[in-house]
């Protein structure tokens, strides 16, 4: 029988009780049919992964007791995704898949042609947490508040940022990555594309480079996932033996 894997916020140390997060007690008891003494695996983004047991469980409350560290904490490559917010289902799908691909942070940026002007930060954080629990990563990606594109560029720290280019003569993303290492970011625009003033503003930033994502027109969610996969494969932790 599978062992549940949960993200918790408390520090993890042998024998020190950890409170389950809201909803996790119900999940363990009612969904997974677990009880006191059953095993769970825990992580918090700081202390690695631990084997623990359920010390107490009642309704939606549970206490978990770490017993043995299974994996030490490992650094996540600083690979960032900036994208114009998408409609709910597509945005949730991108957050889920970006988490599975090991993205370090997700930055929603508001653009002129974007069809969505806000995000449900709490919902997206839950999606990221559940995806991290399933894919066995040891941390959660940071999800930034939605921010105007120009404000995001003004506040950017100079990390190389690849602008996913839908058409034109931009070099391929793969061709721009040899010799590079994180931190790296990729920027994906709205379905309608960036306006000329937005493209001009990005073109004036020394850290922005246009990068082609293949010969076909991609939906925004496809472009985001494809771009992240290329970054991980050629410059991220896919290059490190597991």
TrEMBL record:
Q: Which reaction does it catalyse?
A: uridine(1498) in 16S rRNA + S-adenosyl-L-methionine = N(3)-methyluridine(1498) in 16S rRNA + S-adenosyl-L-homocysteine + H(+)
Q: Ribosomal RNA small subunit methyltransferase E methyltransferase domain spans which residues?
A: 77-232
Compartments in which it is found: Cytoplasm
Could you tell me which Gene3D superfamilies the record lists for this protein? 3.40.1280.10, Hypothetical PUA domain-like, domain 1 (2.40.240.20)
Q: Which CDD domains match?
A: RsmE-like
Q: Which residues form a coiled coil?
A: none
Signal sequence extent:
none
Q: Which superkingdom does the taxonomy of this entry point to? A: Bacteria
The molecular function GO annotations come to:
methyltransferase activity
BP GO terms, sorted: methylation
Boundaries of every Ribosomal RNA small subunit methyltransferase E PUA-like domain copy: 24-66
Entry's family note: Belongs to the RNA methyltransferase RsmE family.
Protein's UniProt name = Ribosomal RNA small subunit methyltransferase E
């Amino acid at each position: 029988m599978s062992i549940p894997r949960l993200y918790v916020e408390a520090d993890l140390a042998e024998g020190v009780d950890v409170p389950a997060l809201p909803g996790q007690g119900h999940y363990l008891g009612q969904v997974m049919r677990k009880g006191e003494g059953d095993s769970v695996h825990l992580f918090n983004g700081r202390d690695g992964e631990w084997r623990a047991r359920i010390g107490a469980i009642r309704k939606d409350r549970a206490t978990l007791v770490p017993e043995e560290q299974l994996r030490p904490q490992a650094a996540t490559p600083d690979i960032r995704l900036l994208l114009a917010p998408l409609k709910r289902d597509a945005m949730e799908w991108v957050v889920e898949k970006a988490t599975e691909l090991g993205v370090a942070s997700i930055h929603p940026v508001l653009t002129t042609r974007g069809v969505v002007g806000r995000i449900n930060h709490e919902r997206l954080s839950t999606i990221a947490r559940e995806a991290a629990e399933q894919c066995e990563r040891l941390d959660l990606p940071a999800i930034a508040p939605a921010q105007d594109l120009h404000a995001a560029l003004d506040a950017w720290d100079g990390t190389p940022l690849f602008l996913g280019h839908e058409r034109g003569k931009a070099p391929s993303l793969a061709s721009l990555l040899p010799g590079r290492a994180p931190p790296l970011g990729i920027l994906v625009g709205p379905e309608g594309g960036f306006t000329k003033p937005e493209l001009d503003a990005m073109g004036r930033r020394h850290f922005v480079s246009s990068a082609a994502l293949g010969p076909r027109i991609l939906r925004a969610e496809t472009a985001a996932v494809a771009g992240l996969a290329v970054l991980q494969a050629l410059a991220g932790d896919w290059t490190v033996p597991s």
